[in-house]
Design a protein that fits this description.
Elements: E1 3-7, H1 12-23, E2 30-34, H2 38-46, E3 57-60, E4 63-66, H3 67-76, H4 93-111, H5 122-125
Parallel strand pairs: 1-2
Antiparallel strand pairs: 1-3, 3-4
InterPro entries: DCC1-like, DCC_oxidoreductase
Organism: Halobacillus litoralis
Protein name: DUF393 domain-containing protein
């Protein structure tokens, strides 16, 4: 099954999260694209995800996930104890998404914003669309 993560390419926290996922996904299950890129925009359009969505987007096969549901499904596929994070899926999505939105709405203030994208190494570059 193909898995794509669409992230905010200008967000420092989001870029660090991508690096975190790459290190804990040695099998390369996830592919990545910035939401601002042509590929990211195309995927969002294909899955009918509105442009104004301010969330990580996970595409698994023919389904899309946003906010905490996306983050927890990513955790489920990482190596190590990060898989345990998926148990939080039992918490109602309104509560999970409240916490997610708190972080999301403050991410530029707390973690900063990038003016340019970091260039990945050649072995990591092949995982970006």
């Amino acid at each position: 099954m193909e898995r794509f993560i669409l992230f905010d390419g200008a967000c420092h926290f989001c870029n660090q999260s991508v690096q975190f996922i790459i290190k804990r996904d040695p099998e390369g299950r996830f592919k990545f694209a910035s939401q601002q890129s042509e590929v990211g925009q195309s995927i969002m359009k294909q899955f009918k995800i509105p442009q104004e969505v301010d969330s990580i987007v996970l595409i698994e096969g023919s389904k899309s996930y946003l906010r905490s549901s996306a983050a927890l499904r990513v955790c489920k596929n990482l190596v190590g104890f990060w898989k345990i994070g998926y148990v939080m899926i039992i918490v109602p999505s309104q509560i999970r998404d409240w916490a997610y939105n708190l972080l999301s709405n403050n991410r530029y203030k707390w973690f900063g914003k990038k003016e340019a994208c970091q260039l990945p190494s050649p072995e990591v570059k092949k995982r970006f669309l």
